[in-house]
Amino acid sequence: MRTFVKLAVGLLAVWLVALVILGYAFAGRTGSRVADRLGESLQATSTIGDTTLGLVRGKLVLERLALRRDDLVGNLALDIGEVTCDLPPLGLALVDRECSELVVDHMRLTVSAAALFRLERPKRKPFHAGHVVIDDAELEFSPSAFLPGLGRMKIRIEHAEAGPTTFRTPLSWLFALEKLQASIELPAGFTLRLTYAEGKLRASGSLFGSTPVEVPFTIPVASTAADAKGELHELAAMARAAAEQLVAQRAADWLRSKIP
Fold first, then answer.
1. Where are the domains positioned within the chain?
2. Which residues, 6+ apart, have CB-to-CB distance to 109 below 8 Å?
3. Alpha-carbon gap, residue 200 to 218, rounded angstroms
4. N or C: which end of the chain has fewer CB within 10 A?
5. Taking the model in full, what pTM does it have?
6. pLDDT number for residue 150
């Protein structure tokens, strides 16, 4: 029995050392593959800074990830300070590469209409994460990229959390949104403050006044979209539906305040 225990401990030690070596050996290649995969899905060129792959504890960290597209079709720029992916520990990530949690920090996204709506179907399956956390993000859309009748729009996200997400686009996580703290800058100097939690959407700011407006809002399922273009059309429809509900609720609140 003692011999068996010593053998098992020895094999475990060898396995852990091997995982550390493999992590160092495959870190750069893994980071490049992830960047190339993201670039392929957006038809963009990709670059990446440092990559850390920990196969023992199960963690992949990508730093300074950048995607660029600038051609006759349109332009797109995506910069991410750090991406952390929680993988299965003890070497299981060698056979199971799905992220149980994906944390994206310091993201900056700028898109034009054509660059985002004319995505082709990627050759490989879209990336999937079990849980998504986004901190410190800015998303800027040209007038025709998101809501054509609205003009240029910038969304600042302080914190967001989403459930299981299949990334057809950088915005796919919105379809699995669970929590959100954000602000939206609209043309003519209008600012909108948004929070979302427990199925309730709250808005305040120059368009709604200092008193927040709250409405129940169910995030739709994105699986009905066959591709990235369809998903983004659904996202635009979701934004319109949310805006209509908030405006209707503000009008109802105003009427109640005026009717004795």
1. 2-258
2. 77, 78, 79, 137, 138, 139, 140, 170
3. 8
4. C
5. 0.86
6. 58
Q: Which residues of the chain have pLDDT under 50?
A: none
DSSP track, the chain: -HHHHHHHHHHHHHHHHHHHHHHHHHHHHHHHHHHHHHHHHTT-EEE---EEEETTTTEEEEEEEEEEEESSS-EEEEEEEEEEEE--TTTGGGT---BSEEEEEEEEEEE-HHHHHTPPPPSSPPEEES-EEEEEEEEEE-TTTS-TTT--EEEEEEEEEESSEEESSTTGGGGGEEEEEEEEE-GGG-EEEEEEETTEEEEEETTTEEEEEEEE-PPPPGGG-SSHHHHHHHHHHHHHHHHHHHHHHHHHHHHHHH--
- The tokens describing 219, both together, are 């995030």
User: What is the percentage of the chain residues whose pLDDT exceeds 70?
Assistant: 79
Structure tokens at 245: 């509900």
* 104: its two tokens: 């994206």
Q: How far apart are CA 249 and CA 35, in angstroms?
A: 43
